[in-house]
Design a protein that fits this description.
The chain folds into 6 domains: 58 residues, Orthogonal Bundle (Helix Hairpins); 225 residues, 2-Layer Sandwich (D-amino Acid Aminotransferase, Chain A, domain 1); 82 residues, OB fold (Dihydrolipoamide Acetyltransferase, E2P), CATH 2.40.50.140; 71 residues, DNA polymerase, domain 1, CATH 1.10.150.20; 77 residues, DNA polymerase, domain 1 (Orthogonal Bundle); 68 residues, Rossmann fold (3-Layer(aba) Sandwich), CATH 3.40.50.10190. Helices cover 37% and strands 21% of the residues. The longest helix has 21 residues. The protein starts with a helix and ends with a helix. The mean pLDDT is 86.
Length: 656
Amino acid sequence: MDAKARIEKLKTLINYHRHRYHVLDQPEISDEAYDSLEEELRRLEEAHPEFITADSPTRRVSGAPLPAFTKVKHAIAQWSFDDAFTETDIRAFDKRVKKLAGGEITYVCELKIDGFKIVLTYERGVLKTAATRGDGLVGEDVTQNVKTIASIPLKLSRPVNIIVEGEIWMGQGEFKRINQDQEQKNLPLYANPRNIAAGTIRQLDPKIVAARRLNSFIYDLAQADFALPATQGEELKLLQELGFKVNQHFTQVRDIEGVIKFWEKWQEQKGQEDYWLDGVVVKVNERVVQEKLGYTGKSPRFAIAFKFPAEQVTTMVEAISLQVGRQGTITPVAELKPVQVAGTTVARATLHNEDEIKRLDVRIGDTVIIQKSGDIIPDVIAVLKDLRPKNSKPFIFPTSLPGVGAIARLPGEAAHRAVDKNTFAQVSRRFHYFASKHAFDIPGLGPKQIDALLEHKLLTTYADIFKLTEEELLALPRFAEVSAEKLIKSIHSRRKVTLARFITALSIPQVGEETAEDLAEHFGVLDKLMKANQEELSAISGVGETIAEKITEFFASKDNQKIIADLLKEVKIERVVKKVAGKLAGQTFVLTGTMTSLSRDEAKRKIKDLGGEVTDSVSKNTTYVVAGENPGSKLTKAQTLGVKILSEEEFLKLIK
C-alpha cells in the first residue's frame, strides 16, 4: 500500500474511533492503541507533507501561537434567548406562541449547557472557521483552538456547506484536575468550568487549549446548502448523523405541561452530569411555525430559556450605598462581603428602594440571603435576624447626597429622585449612555473621556459632541495628537443614525432599546412621534399608559425640544421606510446569493419602497426568492416548496 492510500485509511480509522470515544462515549479500542494510530499517521505525514490536508486528525494542534485573533463577520446573526424563571413565565410564553402560531404546536426540550457559544462553518464538509459569538454580528476567529477539541469533527460525514452553533464546555472532572494543578503550583484557583472554558478558547497558543480537554455539544443547524429538516427533533438527529456531538437528553413533548415536567426532572438531576446546566431550552418543534413566529430585535419568538431557580447563598452587608442613575433615580445597594453565587464572585446586591429596605429590615452588619437570577446584580431576598449584631440601627434615607444635592420621594412613587435633574452625576450618565453602543455607538468616547469633556466645560448638550475639534481635545490631559484625531473621526462617522438609536440616545424615562424600536417602526419619523398624544402612544404594543405619559411629558418640555433641535443640526436621522401601497404591496421576498448590479441593502430598500416585504427565511408564504450568483440553501428550499424564483434580470424588470 502506498503512503497516500495508507494516510487516507488511517485518517478514516482515527476519525471513526475519535467519534466513538469523544462523541458517542463508546470506545472500541484502548487509548494506547488510538495514540499509536495517530503516531503512525503523524510519521507518514512528516515524510510526505504533500499529502497533509486540513481535515487530518494531526491538524488539531499545529503552528506557533497566534499574535492576536482576527474578526469574523457572522453570516447568520447570533441571537440570544429570552428567559423564563417560573411556571407563570413559561405558561405566558406558551400563550404568546399559540396566539401567534394560530393553532396547536409541540415543543422540543433541550438541556441548557452553561458553556461558551461557538459558531462553526463547514465548506464541502470540512471545517473552515470557528468563531466566538462576539456582539452577535462580529466574533473572533478561534479556529485553531477549536480544532484541538476532539468532539468537534474536522470533516463531516457528508460534503455539505453548513453553519452550526453549539456550546464549548469543560467537564467538572477536568476542572477539578486543573485546579489541583493550580494549587500545587501555588497559583490562583479558577472560579468555575464555564469561565475557564471561555478563557481557554481565547488562548493564543493552541497547545494550551489542547492540554485542557474541552468538550462540545452542537444544537443548531443555522444554514445549509440543502433543505433544512421539518422539525427541531429531526434537525438534532441530522446533526448527529453529520458527526457532531449532540446532547442526548432532548425530548419532544405535546404541550407546556410536558415542558414543565422535563424542567422539574432536570432540576433534581442536573448535578449528575459532568457539565454545568442552568436550565432548559424550549423550542417550537415545527420549523414552519418557527419561521412564522420569527424574531424580535434580539431573540427568537419560537424559543425561550427556562432557567432553573436561582442559586442562593448567605453573606454579610458591610455597607449600604446610594447610586444615582441618568434619570435621577436613587438606588440603594448593599455592599457585601464577597461571595460565590452561581459560579461568580458577587460583592454587591440591589435593595431597589426605601420600601424594600423597610420590608426586609436590612441593616449594616446583617447576614443576608442573596439570590442571583436573570440580572447581573443579585437581589437580597431575606435577612437572618438571629445573626444580627447588637446595637444595629435601621437604615435611613438621607435628604441629600454629595454631588447630587437634595433628594426626595415624590407622592405615589417608590423611588427617591434627585431634586435637581442636572447634577453632574446625572448629566454624565446621560452622556455616557448617548455615546454607548446602545445609542450612537461612538467608539473611543467612553465615560472617562466624557467626564473630562464635561469637567472642562466642552460639553453642555449632545450637539456639542459633534462640534468638538482636535485642538480642544489636545488641551485636555491624556490626549495626544493621534488619539485626538482618531476620536474626531470616530465622532464624525456617527453623524447618521437610525431613528430607533436616536430615540434611545435621548434617555426618555422608561424608554429602552426595544421600546425605541417599536416607536420608530410605528411612527417612521421623529416629528410624528414628538406630536403623538398619550392615547395614540399607549395603544402601541409594548408601550402602555405609564410609558406613554413619560414620552409626552418629555417631548412637551421646551428644554428637550431645544436639545433635539440643536442635535438635528449636527446629525441626520436615516429614513425609516414604511410599507406603502405600491406595486409590490402584499408580496414577500427572500434574497439569496450576490447580485452584480446592486447590493443586497439596495435591493431591500427598493422592495420596501414599492410596498413589499423582505424576510430572511423561505416559507410557503414567500412570494419570490431572488437568486443572485452563488445562491445558498434558500434556493433549494424555494424549489422544494414551489416558490417562484427570480433571476437578477427578472427582479430588475419587476422593480423597474
